[in-house]
């Protein structure tokens, strides 16, 4: 699995390690029973990881022992079943290894059932993350004392052996590699396909880079059904008007896990004037203005995404929910024309703006014409036109629309507990 070649440590990592306090670094030599090397050598299920550590000793040798770290060590099976693993790819190995080292000692025994806990890792390379200070992962304790680490694209790693101490911190053995969170585009398009309309709207408004690369963002992303309900209205907006609406869904410079969204908090958004979002908690429900959070804590390369059930409107920031009912009414005026149907048969707005990829359907997945026909009202110069989307060459082919039946699968059963 690993070649015999040796790697030199990238400058970026050396720089990172240089800022860590110098101290009594632990040794990989198995001379003391508490050393990491001894712990790894004694566990035959960790031989792949142990070889990796020996191949990249500098990463571990220079960690501060007194500050404490948590090493998430994938067992041998974890490497075998991770299809993209390439032990020869220095960038991949280094960055994934960094993502498996948590800042501070995270003892699973101290984790309570309930809200998710977020931990920062040593992954800081901007080619991999724009969460400055270290990309994050999520820790959950589930019934039966099961501890699960959630990483990118909803990937779950179960802790098999917990809280093994060594000189310098704790070791957690997991059954699955943690995946560094991907950028917003593949996350919304492939892993959480209930967010394709949201992503399409960002393309249509020319905001993809802003949403995907602004450091430390919190994004409230309405699911497809939410866009379907206001399709007629949104498709009638100019590109600038749509951009103003979409920017109201992003809180820049604030990494906000769902558990940190306190009742009564106002969040400054990227919309013009920073129009605030209002957080309301009612029982176990969490609302952003009048939209309910339906799936919290989706990790992306530059922050965290929370899925909501209504499109937010900066012109209706005073909207409040009625917690006694389910999905709240849309907060946009009804369109004079244009259908806003929900359900699997209705078109999913803005998906025509998604750039084509290799697996992009050439014809609509629903075999209907509605998905292509009604997506844009591109009549005037101010209208939203897919060809105007930033980052999209006018020449490039596009998806011709996906029906909800094809995009509504999402990642079911994520089981991220603790939205209370
Ligand atoms: C270690 O591997 C053996 C078989 O290779 C397996 O039976 C055992 O459950 C593994 N232990 C852990 C903690 O993964
Ligand atoms: C190494 O992995 C990264 C991330 O998957 C990839 O972008 C890059 O192309 C790979 N490099 C090589 C040389 O395979
Ligand atoms: C982080 O942001 C920079 C622009 O500031 C961008 O070039 C880079 O690709 C981003 N990294 C990721 C993983 O998206
Ligand atoms: C991003 O957030 C982390 C903590 O979550 C913080 O350490 C870092 O300074 C923040 N960076 C910016 C640019 O806001
Ligand atoms: C949040 O905004 C609302 C409405 O504008 C205001 O009544 C409230 O005082 C604000 N709360 C805080 C904590 O600033
Ligand atoms: C949140 O605040 C509102 C108004 O301030 C209050 O009515 C509501 O009971 C609070 N919710 C919780 C869960 O405390
Ligand atoms: C799709 O539409 C074409 C032309 O209207 C028709 O020939 C074809 O049978 C349809 N396919 C399906 C799967 O409904």
From TrEMBL:
Gene3D superfamilies xref list: FAS1 domain
- Cite the FAS1 domain residue spans from the record: 33-178, 182-312
**Signal sequence span per UniProt?**
1-25
Q: Which GO terms describe its biological process?
A: macroautophagy
Q: Which domain of life is it from?
A: Eukaryota
State if Signal is listed as a keyword. Answer: yes
Instruction: Quote the cellular component terms of the Gene Ontology held in the record.
Output: fungal-type vacuole membrane
Q: Pfam families attached here? A: Fasciclin
Q: Which UniProt keywords apply?
A: Signal
- Which PANTHER family does the entry mention? FI19380P1, PERIOSTIN-RELATED
Q: What is this protein called?
A: Fasciclin-domain-containing protein
């Amino acid at each position: 699995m690993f070649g015999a070649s040796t790697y030199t440590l990238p400058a970026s990592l050396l720089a990172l390690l240089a800022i860590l306090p110098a101290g009594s670094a632990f040794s990989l030599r198995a001379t003391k029973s508490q050393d990491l090397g001894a712990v790894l050598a004694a566990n035959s299920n960790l031989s792949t990881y142990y070889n990796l550590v020996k191949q990249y000793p500098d990463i571990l040798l220079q960690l501060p022992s007194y500050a404490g770290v948590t090493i998430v060590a994938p067992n041998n099976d974890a490497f075998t079943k991770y299809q993209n693993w390439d032990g020869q790819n220095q960038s991949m190995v280094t960055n994934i290894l960094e993502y498996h080292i948590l800042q501070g000692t995270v003892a699973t025994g101290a984790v309570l059932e309930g809200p998710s806990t977020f931990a920062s890792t040593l992954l800081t390379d901007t080619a991999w993350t724009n969460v400055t200070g270290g990309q994050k992962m999520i820790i959950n304790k589930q019934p039966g004392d099961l501890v699960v680490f959630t990483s990118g694209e909803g990937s779950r790693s179960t802790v098999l052996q917990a809280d093994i101490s060594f000189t310098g911190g704790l070791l957690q053995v997991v059954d699955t590699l943690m995946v560094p969170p991907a950028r917003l585009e593949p996350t919304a398009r492939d892993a959480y396909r209930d967010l394709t309309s949201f992503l399409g709207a960002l393309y249509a408004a020319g905001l993809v880079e802003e949403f995907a690369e602004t450091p430390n963002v919190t994004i409230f992303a309405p699911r497809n059904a939410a866009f379907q309900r206001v399709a007629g209205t949104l498709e009638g907006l100019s590109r600038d008007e749509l951009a103003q609406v979409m920017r109201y869904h992003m809180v820049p410079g604030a990494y906000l896990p769902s558990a940190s969204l306190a009742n009564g908090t106002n969040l400054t958004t990227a919309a013009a004037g920073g129009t605030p979002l209002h957080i309301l908690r009612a029982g176990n429900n969490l609302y952003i203005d009048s939209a309910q959070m339906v799936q919290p804590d989706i990790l992306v390369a530059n922050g965290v995404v929370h899925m909501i059930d209504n499109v937010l409107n900066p012109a209706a920031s005073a909207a409040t929910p009625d917690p006694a009912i389910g999905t709240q009414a849309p907060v946009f005026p009804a369109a004079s024309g244009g259908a806003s149907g929900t359900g699997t048969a209705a078109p999913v707005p803005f998906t025509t703006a998604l750039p084509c990829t290799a697996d992009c359907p050439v014809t609509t997945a629903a075999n209907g014409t509605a998905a292509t026909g009604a997506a844009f009202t591109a009549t005037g110069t101010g209208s939203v036109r897919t060809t105007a989307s930033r980052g999209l060459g006018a020449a490039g082919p596009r998806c011709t629309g996906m029906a909800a039946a094809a995009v509504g699968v999402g990642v079911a059963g994520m089981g991220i507990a603790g939205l209370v």
